[in-house]
Design goal:
Blueprint (H helix, E strand, L loop, with lengths): L12 H15 L7 H22 L3 H8 L7 H8 L3 H25 L8 E5 L4 E5 L6 H16 L2 H17 L2 H19 L3 H18 L3 H13 L11 H13 L3 H6 L9 H11 L8 H9 L1 H16 L7 H13 L11 H37 L1
Length: 387
Protein backbone atom coordinates (compact mmCIF):
# COMPACT_ATOMS: atom_id res chain seq x y z
CA UNK A 1 0.00 0.00 0.00
CA UNK A 2 2.63 2.56 1.04
CA UNK A 3 5.41 1.17 -1.17
CA UNK A 4 3.15 1.70 -4.19
CA UNK A 5 1.85 4.96 -2.65
CA UNK A 6 -1.86 4.50 -3.32
CA UNK A 7 -1.24 3.58 -6.97
CA UNK A 8 1.28 6.29 -7.88
CA UNK A 9 3.93 3.59 -8.42
CA UNK A 10 3.67 -0.09 -9.27
CA UNK A 11 6.06 -2.68 -7.82
CA UNK A 12 4.92 -6.19 -8.89
CA UNK A 13 2.82 -8.07 -6.31
CA UNK A 14 4.99 -11.17 -6.64
CA UNK A 15 8.04 -9.26 -5.41
CA UNK A 16 6.22 -7.72 -2.46
CA UNK A 17 4.58 -11.01 -1.49
CA UNK A 18 7.94 -12.75 -1.70
CA UNK A 19 9.24 -10.34 0.94
CA UNK A 20 6.35 -11.30 3.25
CA UNK A 21 6.74 -15.09 3.01
CA UNK A 22 9.73 -15.36 5.42
CA UNK A 23 7.79 -13.44 8.08
CA UNK A 24 4.78 -15.75 7.60
CA UNK A 25 6.99 -18.81 8.08
CA UNK A 26 8.66 -17.40 11.21
CA UNK A 27 5.45 -16.15 12.84
CA UNK A 28 3.10 -18.99 11.85
CA UNK A 29 4.01 -21.21 14.81
CA UNK A 30 2.79 -18.61 17.30
CA UNK A 31 -0.79 -18.46 18.52
CA UNK A 32 -2.92 -15.70 17.05
CA UNK A 33 -6.57 -14.83 16.54
CA UNK A 34 -6.68 -14.37 12.77
CA UNK A 35 -4.09 -16.89 11.58
CA UNK A 36 -6.53 -19.62 10.61
CA UNK A 37 -8.94 -17.18 8.99
CA UNK A 38 -6.11 -16.14 6.68
CA UNK A 39 -5.22 -19.76 5.97
CA UNK A 40 -8.86 -20.58 5.20
CA UNK A 41 -9.06 -17.59 2.84
CA UNK A 42 -6.01 -18.83 0.96
CA UNK A 43 -7.46 -22.35 0.73
CA UNK A 44 -10.62 -20.86 -0.77
CA UNK A 45 -8.48 -18.95 -3.28
CA UNK A 46 -6.60 -22.13 -4.20
CA UNK A 47 -9.88 -23.95 -4.84
CA UNK A 48 -11.00 -21.11 -7.12
CA UNK A 49 -7.71 -21.39 -9.03
CA UNK A 50 -8.29 -25.10 -9.57
CA UNK A 51 -11.89 -24.40 -10.62
CA UNK A 52 -10.67 -21.76 -13.06
CA UNK A 53 -8.12 -24.14 -14.54
CA UNK A 54 -10.68 -26.93 -14.96
CA UNK A 55 -13.66 -24.92 -16.24
CA UNK A 56 -12.02 -21.88 -17.91
CA UNK A 57 -8.65 -23.32 -19.01
CA UNK A 58 -6.75 -20.46 -17.37
CA UNK A 59 -3.49 -21.70 -15.85
CA UNK A 60 -3.08 -21.73 -12.06
CA UNK A 61 -0.03 -19.38 -12.20
CA UNK A 62 -2.11 -16.86 -14.19
CA UNK A 63 -4.97 -17.01 -11.69
CA UNK A 64 -2.51 -16.84 -8.79
CA UNK A 65 -0.98 -13.67 -10.21
CA UNK A 66 -4.41 -12.11 -10.73
CA UNK A 67 -5.43 -13.02 -7.15
CA UNK A 68 -2.15 -11.88 -5.58
CA UNK A 69 -3.51 -8.62 -4.14
CA UNK A 70 -5.74 -10.61 -1.77
CA UNK A 71 -2.68 -12.42 -0.41
CA UNK A 72 -1.43 -9.22 1.17
CA UNK A 73 -3.27 -10.56 4.20
CA UNK A 74 0.17 -12.08 4.88
CA UNK A 75 1.24 -8.61 5.99
CA UNK A 76 -0.42 -9.66 9.25
CA UNK A 77 2.49 -12.00 10.02
CA UNK A 78 5.13 -9.39 9.21
CA UNK A 79 3.47 -6.85 11.50
CA UNK A 80 3.26 -9.33 14.36
CA UNK A 81 6.97 -10.01 13.91
CA UNK A 82 7.79 -6.30 14.19
CA UNK A 83 6.09 -6.19 17.61
CA UNK A 84 4.94 -2.58 17.41
CA UNK A 85 2.98 -1.19 20.36
CA UNK A 86 -0.69 -0.26 19.89
CA UNK A 87 -0.03 3.50 20.43
CA UNK A 88 2.73 3.35 17.79
CA UNK A 89 0.43 1.59 15.34
CA UNK A 90 -2.28 4.20 15.92
CA UNK A 91 0.19 7.02 15.24
CA UNK A 92 1.26 5.35 12.01
CA UNK A 93 -2.36 4.75 11.02
CA UNK A 94 -3.24 8.38 11.72
CA UNK A 95 -0.35 9.64 9.59
CA UNK A 96 -1.26 7.32 6.68
CA UNK A 97 -4.92 8.39 6.82
CA UNK A 98 -3.92 12.07 6.60
CA UNK A 99 -1.52 11.29 3.75
CA UNK A 100 -4.23 9.41 1.89
CA UNK A 101 -6.76 12.25 2.23
CA UNK A 102 -4.24 14.85 1.04
CA UNK A 103 -3.34 12.62 -1.92
CA UNK A 104 -7.00 12.20 -2.86
CA UNK A 105 -7.83 15.90 -2.63
CA UNK A 106 -4.70 16.90 -4.58
CA UNK A 107 -5.61 14.40 -7.33
CA UNK A 108 -9.13 15.81 -7.41
CA UNK A 109 -7.85 19.38 -7.74
CA UNK A 110 -5.18 18.79 -10.42
CA UNK A 111 -7.31 16.54 -12.66
CA UNK A 112 -7.06 15.91 -15.65
CA UNK A 113 -3.41 15.44 -14.70
CA UNK A 114 -3.36 11.91 -13.27
CA UNK A 115 -0.87 10.87 -10.57
CA UNK A 116 -2.64 7.80 -9.24
CA UNK A 117 -4.13 4.77 -10.98
CA UNK A 118 -7.87 4.14 -10.81
CA UNK A 119 -9.15 7.58 -11.74
CA UNK A 120 -12.50 7.09 -13.47
CA UNK A 121 -14.28 9.85 -15.36
CA UNK A 122 -17.89 9.60 -16.46
CA UNK A 123 -19.65 12.01 -18.76
CA UNK A 124 -23.31 12.92 -18.91
CA UNK A 125 -25.21 15.42 -21.02
CA UNK A 126 -24.72 18.35 -18.68
CA UNK A 127 -21.46 17.98 -16.79
CA UNK A 128 -18.30 16.05 -16.13
CA UNK A 129 -18.67 13.92 -13.04
CA UNK A 130 -15.23 13.19 -11.67
CA UNK A 131 -15.56 10.10 -9.49
CA UNK A 132 -12.55 8.03 -8.59
CA UNK A 133 -11.07 5.95 -5.84
CA UNK A 134 -7.44 5.33 -4.99
CA UNK A 135 -5.84 2.11 -3.83
CA UNK A 136 -6.48 1.58 -0.10
CA UNK A 137 -9.60 3.76 -0.36
CA UNK A 138 -10.93 2.22 2.85
CA UNK A 139 -8.58 4.48 4.81
CA UNK A 140 -11.13 7.28 4.35
CA UNK A 141 -13.93 5.38 6.11
CA UNK A 142 -11.58 3.97 8.75
CA UNK A 143 -10.34 7.51 9.33
CA UNK A 144 -13.84 8.79 10.06
CA UNK A 145 -14.51 6.18 12.75
CA UNK A 146 -10.96 6.53 14.10
CA UNK A 147 -11.29 10.32 14.27
CA UNK A 148 -14.72 10.30 15.96
CA UNK A 149 -13.71 7.59 18.43
CA UNK A 150 -10.45 9.29 19.42
CA UNK A 151 -12.00 12.76 19.60
CA UNK A 152 -14.70 11.58 22.01
CA UNK A 153 -12.12 9.66 24.07
CA UNK A 154 -9.39 12.32 24.21
CA UNK A 155 -11.16 15.62 23.36
CA UNK A 156 -8.19 16.33 21.08
CA UNK A 157 -9.36 18.42 18.11
CA UNK A 158 -6.79 16.96 15.72
CA UNK A 159 -8.87 13.78 15.60
CA UNK A 160 -12.05 15.66 14.72
CA UNK A 161 -10.14 17.42 11.93
CA UNK A 162 -9.08 13.98 10.67
CA UNK A 163 -12.70 12.80 10.64
CA UNK A 164 -13.78 15.95 8.75
CA UNK A 165 -11.01 15.50 6.17
CA UNK A 166 -12.06 11.88 5.59
CA UNK A 167 -15.73 12.89 5.35
CA UNK A 168 -14.85 15.41 2.64
CA UNK A 169 -13.14 12.62 0.68
CA UNK A 170 -16.22 10.39 1.04
CA UNK A 171 -18.40 13.23 -0.25
CA UNK A 172 -16.09 13.88 -3.21
CA UNK A 173 -16.33 10.19 -4.14
CA UNK A 174 -20.10 10.73 -4.64
CA UNK A 175 -21.20 7.20 -3.78
CA UNK A 176 -24.63 7.14 -2.20
CA UNK A 177 -24.28 3.91 -0.22
CA UNK A 178 -21.02 5.01 1.39
CA UNK A 179 -22.43 8.35 2.49
CA UNK A 180 -25.55 6.84 4.07
CA UNK A 181 -23.61 4.11 5.87
CA UNK A 182 -20.94 6.55 7.06
CA UNK A 183 -23.64 8.66 8.73
CA UNK A 184 -25.33 5.59 10.27
CA UNK A 185 -22.12 4.07 11.60
CA UNK A 186 -20.81 7.42 12.85
CA UNK A 187 -23.97 7.69 14.96
CA UNK A 188 -23.53 4.07 16.06
CA UNK A 189 -19.91 4.78 17.07
CA UNK A 190 -20.96 7.74 19.22
CA UNK A 191 -23.79 5.82 20.90
CA UNK A 192 -21.58 2.80 21.56
CA UNK A 193 -18.85 4.90 23.16
CA UNK A 194 -21.16 7.08 25.24
CA UNK A 195 -23.42 4.20 26.28
CA UNK A 196 -26.03 5.28 28.84
CA UNK A 197 -24.82 8.89 29.04
CA UNK A 198 -27.88 10.19 27.19
CA UNK A 199 -27.18 13.90 27.59
CA UNK A 200 -23.58 13.78 26.42
CA UNK A 201 -24.56 11.39 23.60
CA UNK A 202 -27.18 13.84 22.32
CA UNK A 203 -24.74 16.74 22.53
CA UNK A 204 -22.12 14.78 20.57
CA UNK A 205 -24.66 13.69 17.93
CA UNK A 206 -26.09 17.20 17.46
CA UNK A 207 -22.63 18.80 17.32
CA UNK A 208 -21.28 16.40 14.71
CA UNK A 209 -24.53 16.59 12.70
CA UNK A 210 -24.29 20.39 12.58
CA UNK A 211 -20.66 20.13 11.53
CA UNK A 212 -21.40 17.67 8.71
CA UNK A 213 -24.40 19.73 7.52
CA UNK A 214 -22.14 22.78 7.42
CA UNK A 215 -19.65 20.88 5.26
CA UNK A 216 -22.37 20.05 2.75
CA UNK A 217 -22.82 23.80 2.08
CA UNK A 218 -19.39 24.00 0.44
CA UNK A 219 -20.19 24.48 -3.29
CA UNK A 220 -18.23 21.53 -4.72
CA UNK A 221 -19.64 19.19 -2.05
CA UNK A 222 -23.18 20.52 -2.53
CA UNK A 223 -22.87 19.79 -6.25
CA UNK A 224 -21.83 16.21 -5.46
CA UNK A 225 -24.86 15.72 -3.23
CA UNK A 226 -27.18 17.11 -5.92
CA UNK A 227 -25.62 14.76 -8.46
CA UNK A 228 -26.12 11.75 -6.16
CA UNK A 229 -29.79 12.60 -5.69
CA UNK A 230 -30.28 12.96 -9.45
CA UNK A 231 -28.65 9.58 -10.09
CA UNK A 232 -30.90 7.93 -7.53
CA UNK A 233 -33.98 8.62 -9.67
CA UNK A 234 -33.26 5.84 -12.18
CA UNK A 235 -30.22 4.01 -10.77
CA UNK A 236 -31.95 1.88 -8.14
CA UNK A 237 -33.23 -1.67 -7.76
CA UNK A 238 -36.82 -0.72 -8.63
CA UNK A 239 -35.66 -0.19 -12.21
CA UNK A 240 -35.53 -3.58 -14.04
CA UNK A 241 -32.96 -2.11 -16.45
CA UNK A 242 -30.64 -1.05 -13.62
CA UNK A 243 -27.20 -2.34 -14.59
CA UNK A 244 -26.67 -4.14 -11.27
CA UNK A 245 -29.86 -6.15 -11.83
CA UNK A 246 -28.77 -7.02 -15.37
CA UNK A 247 -25.31 -8.04 -14.11
CA UNK A 248 -26.82 -10.20 -11.37
CA UNK A 249 -29.13 -11.94 -13.83
CA UNK A 250 -26.32 -12.65 -16.28
CA UNK A 251 -23.88 -14.05 -13.74
CA UNK A 252 -26.43 -16.19 -11.92
CA UNK A 253 -28.22 -17.49 -15.03
CA UNK A 254 -25.65 -17.65 -17.85
CA UNK A 255 -22.08 -17.36 -16.57
CA UNK A 256 -21.43 -20.64 -14.76
CA UNK A 257 -20.87 -24.04 -16.33
CA UNK A 258 -22.51 -25.83 -13.38
CA UNK A 259 -23.16 -25.69 -9.64
CA UNK A 260 -19.62 -26.78 -8.76
CA UNK A 261 -18.11 -23.79 -10.54
CA UNK A 262 -20.74 -21.56 -8.91
CA UNK A 263 -19.64 -22.78 -5.46
CA UNK A 264 -15.86 -22.67 -5.94
CA UNK A 265 -15.84 -19.65 -8.26
CA UNK A 266 -14.77 -19.22 -11.85
CA UNK A 267 -11.44 -17.69 -10.79
CA UNK A 268 -9.84 -14.27 -10.88
CA UNK A 269 -9.40 -13.37 -14.57
CA UNK A 270 -5.90 -12.79 -15.95
CA UNK A 271 -5.62 -9.80 -18.27
CA UNK A 272 -4.55 -11.57 -21.49
CA UNK A 273 -6.05 -15.05 -21.08
CA UNK A 274 -9.12 -16.10 -23.07
CA UNK A 275 -11.09 -16.15 -19.82
CA UNK A 276 -9.82 -12.67 -18.98
CA UNK A 277 -10.91 -11.41 -22.39
CA UNK A 278 -14.34 -12.95 -21.83
CA UNK A 279 -14.71 -11.12 -18.49
CA UNK A 280 -13.56 -7.92 -20.21
CA UNK A 281 -16.29 -8.41 -22.84
CA UNK A 282 -18.81 -8.43 -19.98
CA UNK A 283 -17.26 -5.25 -18.58
CA UNK A 284 -17.68 -3.65 -22.00
CA UNK A 285 -21.41 -4.38 -21.68
CA UNK A 286 -21.45 -2.82 -18.22
CA UNK A 287 -21.55 -6.16 -16.35
CA UNK A 288 -19.09 -5.64 -13.50
CA UNK A 289 -19.04 -8.43 -10.93
CA UNK A 290 -17.55 -5.83 -8.56
CA UNK A 291 -20.84 -3.89 -8.64
CA UNK A 292 -22.44 -6.72 -6.69
CA UNK A 293 -19.82 -6.46 -3.96
CA UNK A 294 -19.05 -9.56 -1.94
CA UNK A 295 -21.77 -11.50 -3.77
CA UNK A 296 -20.03 -10.70 -7.05
CA UNK A 297 -16.66 -11.57 -5.55
CA UNK A 298 -18.03 -15.00 -4.57
CA UNK A 299 -18.72 -15.67 -8.27
CA UNK A 300 -15.01 -15.16 -8.92
CA UNK A 301 -13.08 -16.49 -5.90
CA UNK A 302 -15.82 -18.80 -4.64
CA UNK A 303 -18.36 -18.88 -1.85
CA UNK A 304 -15.98 -20.48 0.73
CA UNK A 305 -13.39 -17.69 0.49
CA UNK A 306 -15.99 -14.93 0.76
CA UNK A 307 -17.71 -16.60 3.72
CA UNK A 308 -14.36 -16.68 5.52
CA UNK A 309 -13.91 -12.96 4.85
CA UNK A 310 -17.34 -12.23 6.32
CA UNK A 311 -16.52 -14.51 9.27
CA UNK A 312 -13.29 -12.68 10.09
CA UNK A 313 -15.14 -9.37 9.86
CA UNK A 314 -17.70 -10.58 12.42
CA UNK A 315 -14.88 -11.88 14.60
CA UNK A 316 -13.19 -8.47 14.41
CA UNK A 317 -16.37 -6.75 15.61
CA UNK A 318 -16.89 -9.21 18.46
CA UNK A 319 -13.37 -8.94 19.92
CA UNK A 320 -13.57 -7.28 23.31
CA UNK A 321 -11.63 -3.99 23.40
CA UNK A 322 -11.90 -0.82 25.45
CA UNK A 323 -13.86 2.24 24.31
CA UNK A 324 -10.78 3.90 22.81
CA UNK A 325 -10.62 1.17 20.15
CA UNK A 326 -14.24 0.48 19.18
CA UNK A 327 -13.60 1.95 15.73
CA UNK A 328 -11.54 -1.11 14.70
CA UNK A 329 -14.40 -3.61 14.83
CA UNK A 330 -17.03 -1.11 13.69
CA UNK A 331 -15.04 -0.46 10.52
CA UNK A 332 -15.22 -4.13 9.49
CA UNK A 333 -19.01 -4.25 9.85
CA UNK A 334 -19.25 -1.05 7.82
CA UNK A 335 -17.05 -2.60 5.11
CA UNK A 336 -19.25 -5.69 4.78
CA UNK A 337 -22.43 -3.64 4.44
CA UNK A 338 -20.81 -1.10 2.10
CA UNK A 339 -19.72 -4.01 -0.06
CA UNK A 340 -23.21 -5.22 -0.86
CA UNK A 341 -23.12 -2.95 -3.92
CA UNK A 342 -19.44 -2.05 -4.25
CA UNK A 343 -15.95 -3.58 -4.11
CA UNK A 344 -14.89 -1.49 -1.10
CA UNK A 345 -14.07 -4.58 0.97
CA UNK A 346 -11.72 -6.05 -1.63
CA UNK A 347 -10.40 -3.01 -3.49
CA UNK A 348 -6.70 -2.99 -4.35
CA UNK A 349 -4.71 -2.15 -1.22
CA UNK A 350 -7.52 -3.05 1.19
CA UNK A 351 -6.14 -6.37 2.39
CA UNK A 352 -3.02 -4.66 3.73
CA UNK A 353 -5.33 -2.52 5.88
CA UNK A 354 -7.26 -5.62 6.97
CA UNK A 355 -4.00 -7.17 8.16
CA UNK A 356 -2.97 -3.98 9.94
CA UNK A 357 -6.30 -3.72 11.77
CA UNK A 358 -6.15 -7.44 12.69
CA UNK A 359 -2.91 -6.82 14.58
CA UNK A 360 -4.29 -3.68 16.21
CA UNK A 361 -7.35 -5.63 17.38
CA UNK A 362 -5.18 -8.32 18.94
CA UNK A 363 -3.11 -5.73 20.78
CA UNK A 364 -6.26 -3.90 21.87
CA UNK A 365 -7.69 -7.16 23.22
CA UNK A 366 -4.49 -7.90 25.16
CA UNK A 367 -4.58 -4.37 26.54
CA UNK A 368 -8.17 -4.88 27.66
CA UNK A 369 -7.36 -8.22 29.30
CA UNK A 370 -4.39 -6.69 31.12
CA UNK A 371 -6.56 -3.84 32.42
CA UNK A 372 -9.21 -6.26 33.67
CA UNK A 373 -6.61 -8.40 35.45
CA UNK A 374 -5.11 -5.30 37.02
CA UNK A 375 -8.53 -4.26 38.34
CA UNK A 376 -9.12 -7.76 39.74
CA UNK A 377 -5.76 -7.69 41.55
CA UNK A 378 -6.56 -4.28 43.02
CA UNK A 379 -9.93 -5.55 44.25
CA UNK A 380 -8.28 -8.56 45.89
CA UNK A 381 -5.72 -6.31 47.58
CA UNK A 382 -8.48 -4.03 48.90
CA UNK A 383 -10.43 -7.03 50.21
CA UNK A 384 -7.32 -8.39 51.96
CA UNK A 385 -6.60 -5.03 53.59
CA UNK A 386 -10.21 -4.58 54.72
CA UNK A 387 -10.25 -8.15 56.01
Amino acid sequence: MLINFFGATSIPNIILLGLLIPFAIIEFKNRSIFKWYIVATFIGLLLSMISCYYFRKQSIPETFKASAYIMYLMFYFALKNFKLSLPSMEKILHAVIILFCISYIVQFIIFPTVIFKGVEVKLDSTSVDLRFRLYAQGLSSLGIFFGINKFISTKNWKYLITAILCFIVILLMAFRTFLILIVVFSIFTIIRIKGKKIKSTLIALVSISILFITLTQIPVINEKLTFMMDRNKDQNFSNPQYIRILSFNYYTQQHFKNGIEYFFGSGMPAEKSSYGLYIQSLVDKGFYYQDLGLIGLSWIIGIPAVLVMIAYSIKAFRIKVNKNNYYLGIWFVYLVLASLTSMEFFRNGMFVIHAYVFVMLEKAQHQMEYSEKKVEVMKLNVEELSG
